[in-house]
Write a structure and sequence with these properties.
69 residues; elongated
Amino acid sequence: MAAADFIAFPPPKVESPCILVCALDKATGWCLGCGRSGDEIACWSANDNAGRQRVLDQLPARMQQLARD
């Protein structure tokens, strides 16, 4: 088979971390459920996978900080 015989599928989208607990912390502006900022939530669907992953990489530290506060 030639390479042209194969169908190239786009990579799967990085899924949203939303857990349907949508309330922003007044001090940080981060969502208490997922840790994203309001702007990050609003732009999520427009972001490419790299942009989404950059946000996801920050969330564990944010959620730890929210749990301490």
